[in-house]
Amino acid sequence: MKKGIELIVNGQKHEILVAPNELLLHVLRDRLGLTGAKYGCGIGECGACTVLVDGKPILACLTLAISMNGRQITTIEGIAKPDGQLDPLQEAFLHNGAVQCGFCTPGMILMGRALLRENPNPTEQEVREYLRGNTCRCTGYTQIVNAIEDCKCPPEEI
Which residues, including other chains, have CB under 8 Å from residue 138's CB and lie 6 or more apart? Predict the structure, then answer.
C-alpha cells in the first residue's frame, strides 16, 4: 500500500506516493529524473548514491523514501547556482582534474561539501578519512583530495 509523502529536493517540493519498501535512490532517479546519484553496489559500500539530507551525507541506495517525508534533500543537480554557475567545489574538481569517468563524482562532491561545512580547512588525511566510503576506480584519489583541499570559500557558500 503506497503512502503519500512530501520530499523537498533541491528546494522544490514534490508530493509523491511511495511504497513502504521503495528506496530513495529509485525515487530520485526513476520518478524525479535526477540521475546524478548512481546505483553502484546497492549495499552501501561505494558511495555513488550519496545525497545530502538536511546537509548530512546519506546513501540513497540504503534509505527508504518514506523515511524522508518532509526532509531537505540535495542532489548533485541542486548545487549549481540557478544561472548555471558551478558550485565552488565543482569548479575545484574541474581545475584539479578530479573528474575522469564521472561515475563517482556526484558522491565525491557531495561528501566534500559535507566535509567542508564541518571543517573548512581539512588536512589531506582528514579528507581521505572522510571519503573512505566512496570508491573511485579511475583517479587514485589524489586529484579528488586536492580538489577538496583547494576549495577555498566560506562554509556558508558550500
Answer: 100, 101, 104
CATH top class, domain 88-157: mainly alpha
pLDDT digits (tens, 9 = 90+) for 74-125: 999 999 999 999 999 999 999 999 998 989 999 999 999 999 999 999 999 9
- What is the domain partition of the chain in residue ranges? 3-76, 88-157
- Residue 57 contacts residue 108 (beta carbons within 8 Å): no
Q: Are 90 and 107 spatial neighbours (Cβ–Cβ below 8 Å)?
A: no
First to last CA, the chain: 39
> In sequence order, which residues have a C-beta less than 8 Å from that of residue 109 and are 6 or more positions away?
76, 79, 87, 89, 90, 93
Residue with cell 556526484: 106
Q: What is the mean pLDDT of residues 26-36?
A: 98
Non-local CB neighbours of 86 within 8 Å, separated by 6+ positions: 80, 94
Range list of β-strands (E), the chain: 3-9, 12-18, 50-53, 56-59, 72-74
CA–CA separation, 47 and 89 (whole Å): 17
Q: How does residue 26 score in pLDDT terms, banded at 50, 70 and 90? A: very high
Q: Does domain 3-76 have CATH number 3.10.20.30?
A: yes
